[in-house]
Amino acid sequence: MTPDRTSPVALVTGGSQGLGLAFTRALDAAGWRVVVDARHPEALTRAVSGLAGVTAVPGDVTDPAHRGMLAAAVAGLGRLDLLVHNASALTGSDSPSPLPALAELPAADLERIIAVNVLAPLALTQLLLGELRTAHGTLVTLSSDAAVEAYPGWGGYGSSKAALDQLAAVLAAEHPDLHVYAVDPGDMNTAMHQRAFPGEDISDRPLPETVVPALLRLVRQELPSGRYRAADLLAAVPA
Q1: 85, 86, 55: which is closest to 73 by C-alpha?
Q2: Domains of the chain: which residue ranges?
Q3: Are 191 and 137 in contact (CB under 8 A)?
Q4: Is-contact 137 81, C-beta < 8 A?
Q5: Which of 151, 157, 181, 228 is catalytic?
Q6: How far apart are the C-alpha atoms of 61 and 121, rounded to whole Å?
Q7: CA 191 from centre of chain
Q8: Alpha-carbon distance 67 to 59, whole Å?
Q9: In 3D, which of 21, 84, 87 has the Cα closest to residue 54?
Q10: Which parts of the chain have pLDDT scores under 70?
Q11: Which CATH class is domain 9-235?
Q12: Is the dihedral of CA 30, 51, 47, 85 positive or negative?
């Protein structure tokens, strides 16, 4: 479906792979116009090549100048109906390694995790809140079961997702005109999950495409703001 100037607009961060890319493709297929970002320009360009309704804006979401470019891209499309905070940092670097215990987690790594997973989503939301409210739109933050369960090695990532959950809950309370969702997608076969288990076979995990119907259900705004597990949302999707 080819989008036009009246088509709804979404911004999806971290859209060059995994769930972000799968969701971007689904929105494009449904006729949405989508602004998408990722840190690596070549990977992002390859990922969204051929998607007629997608505008790629490479950059690091922790960079205020990049967030300004995202806001400018949205302004150029004239509206914002959906903001998806998908970009996430599992550790302080992209190198595959077993996740460290909290007692061994460098402060600089935790600072990077918090910057990507908490501070950047809030700053981008603040920047785009006016457009989102005008459209009575939807805000989706990608959470994790590590936000509510205590897993050895997942303390840095899990604590950042717990903080993001709380930000989403407060934004929902402060802006009842919006639909604000925190979504735990569950385990997936993604590059980020593979980095947490270097050398292990994670091919038994579901592909990110299987989670997309759960996100699309939230986009329809048929549920109240809150925290949801994708597995529960998918159980209510007709086969």
Answers
A1: 55
A2: 9-235
A3: no
A4: yes
A5: 157
A6: 8
A7: 15
A8: 8
A9: 21
A10: 1-2, 94-97, 188-199, 201-202, 206, 237-239
A11: alpha beta
A12: negative
